[in-house]
User: Which sequence fits this backbone?
């Protein structure tokens, strides 16, 4: 029988070591013999879907979650298979991923960076999520991407449009399917020239956060390259609801174009105010006054109602693109059928990007033959694919940004129903929206090394 | 000059909303001594009364149109509102078009009922509790109310337009000798300002010229003495809570065409309205109205490009800067009375 001698110093030492061990983030100890975070041991693999379930983007988050659920169903061989049948890669066969049934957990980002990080952390540490996806804000995406990099899991971004997500804040573990502010501006520029000419004076109202700044910088550069001048750029608080005080200075500023670098509720309110103040009926410099909303969404169009008529913007995808623009966008109709039959309405672009991201992750794991995030990263980097609704697409290795066609859209003048509020004006080809990896608007960051969490 | 006139006009409509909400807050505080953080939620519910009435009036039956297909390739359907079916296209569409003004009559009983239920069901239990408890419980109630609205109406803003004849803008500048299209102002915002003036006047007249109002004012000044005279002041104060809820609700109804209603709009106004009450002077009804318009106009001026260029970020803090200055120089606010919230 051994005798244990307890000393004060010994107790403190032991306590300190035990405390340090307990305080160490669980994900650092969650790795298994496989050498990466949350390696699945049983017959299921868990994905974490982090979407806004409360807050101003809750409707968009709900649509993302519907798409994720649908993707999981299809991966597990349920339902009609959706875009699995049109996806150019054929390694997914409806038996889950690498023979493991796909399960998922969901979290609420609340469209707040701290809440989104806490929810992602919980899914990684407590639920064993091996991949995190979703979100409707660039601020949130950048924050969660950073967390996933530290935790050693893959982050498949949802709706995030700031240049920074795959620019100065890019990470090796993060991947973005959605387009970005630069691409919107590059896609819009030729259409704006065609519609409104090259002698225009633009006034910008810009949401005062990362997405707004990069959107404004991008569209200003693109329009100035056309010969337009920039009269002013006014930053508006994200929490603003009444923009009348910002709209009225536009009236007599000499500008003949108002660019609303706003998204969601900000855009709905600023556009409504601009229309109320008669900007759309105004003539300045002998031209009709025009309003541009660089980033569009169906939900925003619905919120803006009749005010959106004729307003030009850009989208990553639209549910009508295959029917109207042809078979290049194959996969769209299969997804719309699948989503429409299940939920009763067409999917939004947020839903499409989340569905595509889930399939792309699963496909990369299947091709890599492992859930190791670094192997999945290698499989995604430089991957060229088709059949997910956007036409031929490249996941560029340099920055983990997808390059594909961008849609230029406008609000329908006479929508036949609530699902046809947006009309496709033109599709801008990939080459026109592609930029060099070291483009100044994306400078300042580095992918760094992949972190498997080991 | 034109920019200054425009910002004064902007401030008037924003100030109207602040003044109406602050008026209700002050009525509740002055009568019941309760700091009601759920008051912004009442403004939001008022807006959703307009949304609800518009939806009720737009209830439709569906007819299949075999010549068209929906997004899934099935035969398409189109909706015909019952009011159009019953009264014909012109009258039926006219009724739907006027749903916001009609919602005034729809909202009054609903808001009074909500006010009664709030006061009798919850807030009366906190009369003798510290103000911190009252703030916590009413703030919690505000969150519950906004989540209920979000559950039923979603998080997306819902456009609720003004009647066709009030859409568009009025050329104010030509009246003042400016060139055409220099000072234009939306018709509905002018309507809102006029509506606010009528409601504020009606509330003051009610308190000033009716026996009920006289008793309420006496109760606000000395509740105990009025009670000793055998008057059931509590019952009157409950009615005043309902009235304050109705004022906030009506402010919300008419605000619906200005900014598309969303579940969070009450919170957006709440903090600013409290600052308005404090600047005006706790318990002072004229102070609340004066401060509402004053801060609305100052906020508009602070958003002018020239001012932002001069002091970056001033548009986001102006109201609080003014509040600090006023409270430093006049601790009871602009028109505050001695003894209110001074224990």
Assistant:
């Amino acid at each position: 029988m051994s005798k244990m001698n307890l000393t004060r110093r010994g107790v403190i030492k032991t306590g300190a070591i035990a405390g340090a061990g307990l305080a160490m983030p669980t994900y650092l100890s969650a790795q298994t013999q496989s050498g990466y975070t949350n390696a699945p041991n049983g017959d299921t693999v868990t994905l974490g879907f982090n979407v806004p379930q409360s807050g101003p983007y809750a409707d968009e988050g709900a649509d993302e979650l519907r798409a994720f659920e649908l993707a999981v169903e299809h991966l597990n061989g349920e339902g009609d298979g959706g875009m699995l049948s049109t996806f150019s890669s054929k390694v997914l066969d409806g038996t889950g991923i690498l023979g493991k049934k796909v399960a998922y957990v969901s979290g609420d980002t609340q469209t707040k960076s701290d809440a989104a990080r806490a929810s992602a952390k919980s899914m990684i540490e407590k639920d064993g999520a091996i991949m995190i996806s979703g979100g409707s804000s660039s601020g949130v995406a950048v924050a969660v991407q950073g967390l996933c990099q530290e935790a050693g899991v893959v982050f498949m971004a949802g709706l995030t449009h700031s240049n920074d997500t795959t620019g100065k804040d890019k990470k090796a573990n993060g991947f973005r399917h959605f387009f970005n502010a630069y691409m919107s501006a590059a896609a819009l520029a030729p259409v704006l020239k065609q519609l409104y000419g090259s002698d225009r004076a633009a006034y910008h109202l810009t949401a005062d956060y990362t997405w707004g700044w990069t959107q404004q910088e991008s569209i200003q550069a693109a329009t100035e390259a056309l010969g337009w001048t920039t009269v002013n750029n006014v930053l508006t608080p994200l929490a603003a609801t009444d923009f009348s005080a910002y709209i009225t200075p536009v009236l007599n500023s000499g500008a003949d174009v108002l660019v609303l670098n706003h998204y969601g509720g900000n855009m709905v309110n600023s556009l409504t105010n601009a229309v109320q103040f008669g900007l759309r009926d105004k003539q300045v410099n002998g031209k009709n006054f025009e309003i541009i909303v660089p980033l569009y969404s169906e939900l925003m169009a619905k919120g803006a109602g009749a005010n959106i008529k004729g307003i030009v913007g850009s989208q990553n995808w639209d549910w009508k693109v295959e029917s109207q623009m042809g078979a290049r966008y194959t996969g769209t109709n299969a997804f719309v059928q699948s989503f429409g039959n299940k939920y009763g309405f067409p999917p939004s672009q947020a839903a499409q990007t989340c569905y595509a991201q889930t399939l792309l992750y699963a496909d990369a794991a299947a091709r890599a033959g492992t859930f190791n995030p670094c192997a999945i990263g290698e499989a995604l980097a430089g991957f060229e694919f088709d059949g997910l609704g956007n036409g031929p697409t490249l996941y560029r290795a340099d920055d983990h940004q997808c390059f594909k066609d961008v849609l230029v859209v406008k609000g329908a003048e006479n929508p036949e129903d609530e699902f046809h509020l947006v009309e496709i004006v033109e599709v801008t080809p990939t080459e026109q929206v592609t930029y060099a990896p070291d483009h100044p608007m994306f400078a300042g960051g580095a992918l760094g090394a992949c972190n498997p969490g080991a | 000059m034109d920019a200054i006139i425009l910002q004064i006009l902007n401030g008037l409509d924003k100030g109207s909303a602040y003044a109406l909400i602050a008026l209700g807050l002050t009525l509740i505080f002055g009568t019941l001594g309760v700091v009601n953080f759920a008051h912004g939620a009442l403004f939001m519910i008022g807006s959703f009364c307009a949304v609800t009435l518009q939806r009720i009036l737009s209830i439709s039956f569906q007819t299949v149109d075999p010549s068209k297909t929906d997004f899934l390739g099935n035969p398409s359907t189109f909706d015909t509102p019952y009011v159009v079916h019953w009264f014909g296209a012109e009258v039926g569409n006219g009724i739907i078009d006027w749903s916001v003004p009609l919602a005034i009559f729809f909202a009054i009983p609903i808001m009074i009922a909500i006010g009664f239920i709030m006061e009798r069901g919850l807030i009366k239990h906190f009369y003798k509790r510290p103000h911190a408890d009252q703030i916590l419980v009413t703030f919690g109630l505000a969150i519950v109310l906004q989540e209920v609205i979000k559950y039923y109406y979603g998080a997306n803003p819902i456009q609720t337009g003004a009647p066709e004849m009030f859409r568009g803008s009025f050329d104010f500048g030509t009246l003042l000798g400016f060139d055409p299209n220099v000072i234009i102002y939306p018709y509905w915002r002018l309507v809102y300002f006029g509506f606010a003036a009528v409601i504020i006047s009606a509330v003051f007249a009610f308190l000033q010229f009716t026996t009920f109002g006289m008793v309420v004012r006496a109760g606000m000044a000395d509740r105990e003495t009025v009670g000793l005279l055998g008057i059931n002041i509590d019952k009157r104060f409950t009615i005043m809570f309902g009235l304050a809820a109705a004022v906030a609700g009506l402010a919300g109804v008419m605000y619906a065409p200005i900014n598309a209603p969303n579940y969070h709009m009450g919170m957006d106004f709440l903090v600013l309205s409290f600052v308005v009450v404090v600047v005006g002077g706790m318990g002072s009804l004229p102070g609340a109205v004066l401060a509402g318009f004053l801060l609305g106009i100052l906020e508009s001026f602070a958003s002018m490009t020239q001012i932002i260029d001069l002091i970056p970020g001033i548009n986001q803090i102006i109201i609080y800067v003014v509040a600090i200055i006023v409270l430093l120089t006049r601790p009871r606010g602009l028109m505050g009375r001695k003894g209110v919230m001074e224990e």
Notes: Strands of chain B lie at 60-69, 75-81, 169-171, 184-186.
